[in-house]
Write a structure and sequence with these properties.
- With 86 residues, the protein is mostly beta strands.
- It has one domain.
- The protein has no helices and eight strands.
- The radius of gyration is 13 Å and the shape is globular.
Length: 86
């Protein structure tokens, strides 16, 4: 799988770097948003908890190459919406 450095910032993006510090990809997840938790699975897919100003929290799954696979809106109401990407 190789060595990974992953960072998230308050501008709502996630980036992946190789062991030499070269950026492999960067994905913007939204404006006025911040990511505060990241996890990787065995296949290299990433799960990101994303918060929007004045809106619900989302759990976003990114593929190992940074493409959004799906996002799940975690709101305070009774319904939660899974939004798969084609």
């Amino acid at each position: 799988m190789g060595h990974r450095h992953i960072s998230a910032a308050s501008t709502g993006f996630v980036s992946k770097y190789d062991r030499h510090g070269q950026q492999l990809w960067s994905t913007q997840l939204g404006s006025h948003a911040w990511a505060d938790a990241l996890a990787l699975d065995a296949g290299g897919d990433m799960y990101v908890t994303l918060h929007h100003s004045g809106a619900a929290t989302r759990l976003v799954k990114l593929s190992a190459c940074g493409a959004e696979v799906w996002n799940l809106e975690l709101n305070s109401g009774e319904h939660q919406t899974l939004n798969p990407k084609p």
